[in-house]
Amino acid sequence: MRRVRATRYVTAFREGGSVPALVEADDDGLYVVKLSGASQGPKVLLAELVAGELARAAGLPVPELVLVELDAAFGDAEPDPELAEPLGKSAGLNLGLDFLPGSITYDPAAGELPSVGLASQIVLFDAYVANVDRTSRNPNMLHWHGDLWLIDHGASLYFHHAWDDASPLLWCDDPFAEIHQHVLLPRAEAVDEACAHLRRTLTDTVLDTVLAKIPEDWLVEGPGATPEARRAAYGQWLRARRLRLESLGKEVADART
After folding, report:
1. How many domains does the chain have?
2. Overall pTM > 0.85
């Protein structure tokens, strides 16, 4: 992943527990940055990175993710102490999402619907990574220049908030009943094709490549005594979850009926 250094604090987005900040970086780009010092901690950034990069590997539209280095002094630019505190605690590497200026939130009522194939892949992928946050109330998708873009995967991989050495495969066989609330469920008519596509694209090599991008400082908890052992535990879970794709597809099909 590319690494950039934040050079200017623009503003805060006062939504979500990760209190993301809009910053300008030394490559002249603007990024929506999730902060490692926010109350939810680095696991949200890890989930955002892993799910976002896996989605990209599967051919799904995700804005570029970059690692953003923040200086502790950035907190001095925010007058609101509730926002300045996480900024000050986030010195070091954080996760940035390419800012899409002028984008609008996806609204199925507006009539700009994704194709059945794309919708099916998104729904099944969200079931695979256990993303509970793609509902009609909070779709976490944007329209930008006529295209659909997926954002905000921090609620994915929620098993890692509870796993430990005794349960490295915690909930990997969860049928993910939450898929009933997915905003694109009505369009997910090609689940079998989506299952074949994800099996073909989410290979062991892809999983290892994505997991290798996780900064060691974010691998603070989980099975194993070292960051590399915890990185391997994520790989073990994702491989076991991949074996459930057909069952997850059936859950999607049942939810549609």
Report:
1. 2
2. yes
